[in-house]
TrEMBL record:
<dbReference type="InterPro" id="IPR043454">
    <property type="entry name" value="NPH3/RPT2-like"/>
</dbReference>
<feature type="domain" description="NPH3">
    <location>
        <begin position="210"/>
        <end position="494"/>
    </location>
</feature>
<protein>
    <submittedName>
        <fullName>Phototropic-responsive NPH3 family protein</fullName>
    </submittedName>
</protein>
<feature type="domain" description="BTB">
    <location>
        <begin position="28"/>
        <end position="97"/>
    </location>
</feature>
<keyword id="KW-0833">Ubl conjugation pathway</keyword>
<dbReference type="InterPro" id="IPR011333">
    <property type="entry name" value="SKP1/BTB/POZ_sf"/>
</dbReference>
<dbReference type="Pfam" id="PF03000">
    <property type="entry name" value="NPH3"/>
</dbReference>
<dbReference type="InterPro" id="IPR000210">
    <property type="entry name" value="BTB/POZ_dom"/>
</dbReference>
<dbReference type="InterPro" id="IPR027356">
    <property type="entry name" value="NPH3_dom"/>
</dbReference>
<dbReference type="Pfam" id="PF00651">
    <property type="entry name" value="BTB"/>
</dbReference>
<comment type="similarity">
    <text>Belongs to the NPH3 family.</text>
</comment>
<dbReference type="GO" id="GO:0012505">
    <property type="term" value="C:endomembrane system"/>
</dbReference>
<comment type="pathway">
    <text>Protein modification; protein ubiquitination.</text>
</comment>
<feature type="coiled-coil region">
    <location>
        <begin position="537"/>
        <end position="564"/>
    </location>
</feature>
<keyword id="KW-0175">Coiled coil</keyword>
<dbReference type="GO" id="GO:0016567">
    <property type="term" value="P:protein ubiquitination"/>
</dbReference>
Length: 613
């Protein structure tokens, strides 16, 4: 820490109660009162250094035995005036980064200029300030003391100069150390550098981008805000700006982070101060997408709601989160409802607004990249895989979110439907997630009518259910009968398509004379296992056998369900289909399975099911 030593005399002041007395042996002729403290001094040393004190002394009647002067408005108070008294008497004193700003302001207040003695306090403090601006730590200490001497520190531009110096050093860490050169640089007895009597303790700063985060987090909010505004004005990288803002917010608002660098983060701020802080932080956050972590934004939103921050602050956070909703976690989305209505446990409307913001940004991105579809397709082909898009991630996130909020009995169907319907059908590779959410909602809202159940089931695409989900849906008594029939139909349709494709491939292999001639050789050739069409055909037949078993199992499940809900005739009659009549002579015809559907009935069934879907 820089230190400038002034004066040469030994200490002559001592404290007696609330009074400072002078041990020069001469009786004091002036008493200066500042706050609760009083100073018993002599006029001559004071008026020889200060124009303002000289003027005050002239206004005091000369016939009074002791002059009493009140200086309650002196910047820095009694602590600063004690140093001024030492300076006027030539007593040893030290200028440090912690006292130079109050002394500079007090010297300005008392007009201690060069007209009242060479090397007066104004020029001494000003020169010392200019030198400590070369060091990060000393400048930071000086800045913290500016708040105690406002507004004079602002009028003298001390605050702005400190902030400007700190911003330059934060942008370029190499400037955080004062370079020492020239013949006047000497070595002090304690091995610290001296510059014209100024002791400089040089400590190197780390060059990481976040080395200054913790230092500036000790500033008060008004000073920190001005520092960050200066950094933004100098075009500091948005990621560094965001990193500092996040660090500062976590340090002063416990609800944002329980621990900071392994230490418990405690705040002495009131709720009003915390509310003001988070509103200021949100206002300073960069607008660039992805610069600020989504987790921090969501926690900030929850905290802002709990502190009843302004609607503008909450709306700004919702918009920022919406822009990068694909990076959010489910647990952070479960924001408790603290509004006045509190109809639901979680704030569904807030998530709906964030999702709407995401859809707007996603549509804009899709329009701007429409000309690059061919390039993206080539990349997917070369990579042999398709990376999950932001829309796909958000679709999965919303399905999981709906499943979490579905058990809430106060969640109305229109609100559930509105949130689920925002996601386009093409965004989901599988509809298992939305099916699970629908099933949970139906279970928690058993009083729904059949019409409402069919309406909510339209949110999912039965053709995009996995085999496991389809099997569960086929046995789900909560689903409407029409939906169950759709699920079974589409599963059989998939099975028929797969079997037809495999049999077509087998016919092609059997008609190949070249392949038939080398059949035995290919079967025994262990080196061509991966590209062997005969081995592939054997696998095909095994798969067909497995699918036939699955189909038979599904039919048995359907028959069981029909027995509980109605006969096949009622179902087919409802769908407008008919059965093949049994022949009069069973022996004269081939045996057929019970309730086998005629081909034209299958066609009608397909049309009806597709129409339903």
């Amino acid at each position: 820490m820089a230190c400038l030593k002034l004066g040469s005399k030994s200490e002559i002041f001592y404290l007696y109660g609330q009074s400072w007395l002078c041990s020069t042996g001469l009786p004091s002729d002036v008493i200066i009162e500042i706050g609760d403290a009083s100073f018993h001094l002599h006029k001559f040393p004071l008026i020889s250094r200060s124009k303002e004190l000289e003027r005050f002394m002239k206004d005091i009647p000369s016939d009074s035995e002791k002059s009493i002067l009140e200086l309650h408005d002196l910047p820095g108070g009694a602590k600063a005036f004690l140093l001024i008294a030492r300076f006027c008497y030539g007593v040893k004193m030290e200028l440090t980064p912690s006292n130079v700003v109050p002394l500079r302001c007090a010297a300005e207040f008392l007009q201690m200029s060069e007209d009242y003695g060479e090397g007066n306090l104004m020029i001494q403090t000003e020169n010392f300030l200019n030198h400590i601006f070369g060091q990060w730590t000393d400048t930071l200490k000086a800045l913290k003391t500016c708040e105690d001497v406002l507004p004079l520190a602002e009028e003298l531009h001390i605050t702005s100069r400190c902030i400007h110096s700190l911003v330059l050093k934060a942008a370029d860490p190499t400037l955080a150390i004062l370079p020492l050169s020239g013949p006047s640089s000497v070595q002090s007895p304690d091995n610290s550098e001296m510059w014209n009597g100024i002791s400089m303790s040089l400590t190197s700063k780390e060059t990481g981008e976040d080395w200054w985060f913790d230092d500036v987090s000790s500033l008060s909010l008004p000073l920190y805000k001005r520092f960050m505004q200066g950094a933004i004005a100098r075009h500091m990288k948005p990621r560094r700006v965001s990193g500092s803002l996040v660090y500062y917010a976590k340090k002063h608002i416990p609800s944002l982070s329980s621990f900071q660098n392994g230490n418990s983060s405690k705040s002495n701020l009131s709720e009003a101060d915390q509310r003001n802080l988070i509103e200021e932080i949100v206002e300073l956050l960069p607008n660039e997408k992805g610069v600020t972590q989504t987790k921090f934004l969501l926690r900030s939103l929850r905290t802002a709601m709990a502190l009843y921050a302004s609607s503008c602050c909450c709306a700004s956070l919702e918009k920022r989160i919406g822009f990068q909703l694909d990076e959010a976690d489910l647990e952070d989305l479960l924001i408790p409802n603290i509004g006045y209505s509190m109809e639901t446990i979680h704030d569904i409307d807030c998530v709906q607004r964030m999702l709407d913001h995401f859809m707007i940004v996603d549509n804009d991105d899709a329009d701007s990249t429409s000309n690059n579809d061919i390039v993206e397709e080539e990349r997917r082909i070369v990579g042999n895989c398709q990376r999950a898009t932001p829309m796909t991630k958000v679709a999965d996130l919303m399905d999981s979110y709906l499943a979490e909020v579905a058990p809430d009995v106060n969640l109305k169907f229109p609100k559930f439907q509105s949130l689920a319907a925002v996601i386009p059908d093409c965004a989901r590779t599988l509809d298992d997630g939305i099916y699970r959410a629908i099933d949970i909602y139906l279970k928690s809202h058993a009083w729904m009518t059949e019409s409402e159940k069919e309406q909510i089931c339209r949110l999912m695409n039965c053709q995009k259910l996995s085999l496991e989900a389809s099997t569960h849906a086929a046995q789900n008594e909560r689903l409407p009968l029409r939906v169950v029939v759709q699920v079974l139909f589409f599963e059989q349709l998939k099975l028929r398509t797969s079997v037809a494709g495999w049999f077509f491939a087998s016919d092609t292999l059997e008609n190949s004379t070249t392949l038939s001639g080398n059949l035995a050789l290919l079967r025994n050739d262990g080196n061509t296992t991966h590209n062997n069409p005969v081995v592939a055909f054997d696998h095909m037949k095994d798969r067909v056998s497995e699918l036939e078993k699955e189909c038979l199992s599904m039919k048995q499940d359907l028959e069981k369900m029909m027995k509980s809900k109605g006969s096949w005739n009622m179902l087919l009659k409802k769908l407008g289909c008919r059965l093949i009549p049994k022949p009069s002579n069973p022996k004269a015809s081939k045996p057929c399975r019970k309730s086998k559907i005629a081909p034209d009935a299958v066609t009608e069934l397909e049309e009806n099911v597709v129409a339903v879907s």
